[in-house]
Design brief:
The protein is mainly beta and about 280 residues long. It contains three helices and 24 strands. Pathway: Glycan metabolism; pectin degradation; 2-dehydro-3-deoxy-D-gluconate from pectin: step 4/5.
């Protein structure tokens, strides 16, 4: 019996998105459930055929299975690459017989061609929560583990503008070779609530944001849409949101929080952004 849960979502253009109500926005862009005990959950989006989801092994290890209805390949990574960031307790990822220890807020890149991938937790009382992003790949690169200390760190913002944050570039071409997948983790300091300001779009790439460490009883309002006609989606802890290439992607929380960004598309240039002055947002 398969332990993989999945859904497929077609891309929505900016003109079509204008007609969506709150329910429609959430159904198309919000990923409400990322982690389920002893399951692997994926959302397959037709924006760059990106896949986002989570693996939460509790009672035993979970295998990364192919999804016949979506991939039409004998194994999951036959034509894909995979990025993993653990947001739970310590765990292990086994890739073709090699075991990698992946602790809290540590990352692992798995290249195209890896056949047997398994996820497990070191302690089921504090299970690992492996946040997963996957994109099509044309070349195989070596599997590599990246800790927070090994990430390329960027300090941005200030407490005065409520956006003092540390960007940890983890699965980025400055740190690890990938085909098109890039992932990192942004941590907001206490007293700061805004992320990704000034807002921007990049028509060459799409993104997925995963919000976590949102305190109980608090929430994040994620802003999306064209710069002159924005919308918002209210999000809670351990939820993700799909950001199309035509959309801004920014948020403000009722508390500080952490989020993981993942992206794919035309290039690997992290600074390829079409920035919008804050005063021009509508």
């Amino acid at each position: 019996m398969s332990h993989t849960i999945f859904e497929s979502r077609y891309a929505v253009g900016p003109n079509e998105a204008k007609g969506l109500d709150t329910k429609g926005l959430r159904e198309n862009f919000l990923i409400e459930k990322v982690f389920t005990a002893d399951k692997i959950h994926f959302v397959y989006t037709h924006y760059d055929r990106y896949m986002a989801g989570g693996a939460m092994p509790v009672e035993g290890r979970l295998q990364l299975e192919t999804i016949d209805e979506l991939l039409k390949e004998p194994y999951f990574l036959a034509r894909r690459e995979l990025g993993i960031i653990n947001v739970g307790g310590a765990g292990q990822v086994e890739v073709d017989g090699t075991v990698y220890e992946v602790g809290h807020k540590e990352a692992l890149y798995v290249g195209k061609g890896a056949k047997d991938v398994y996820f497990s937790s070191n302690d089921k009382a504090s299970p690992a929560k492996f946040y997963l992003n996957s994109t099509p790949a044309h070349q195989s690169f070596p599997t590599k583990r990246v800790t927070k200390d090994e990430a390329n760190k960027i300090e941005l913002g200030s407490l005065e503008t409520s956006n003092h944050r540390t960007i940890n570039q983890m699965l980025l071409n400055k740190v690890v070779d990938t085909c098109q997948l890039q992932m990192g983790m942004t941590e907001l300091r206490p007293g700061s609530v805004w992320n990704t300001m000034p807002a921007h779009t990049h028509d060459r790439r799409m993104e997925v944001y995963f919000y976590f460490e949102v305190p109980e009883g608090q929430a994040v309002s994620h802003f999306m849409g064209p710069i002159d006609e924005t919308r918002h989606i209210w999000m809670h802890n351990e939820q993700a949101v799909i950001s199309p290439p035509w959309s801004i992607h920014a948020g403000a929380g009722t508390s500080n929080y952490t989020f993981i960004w993942g992206m794919a598309g035309e290039n690997l240039d992290y600074d390829d952004m079409d920035k919008c002055p804050i005063t021009k947002l509508r």
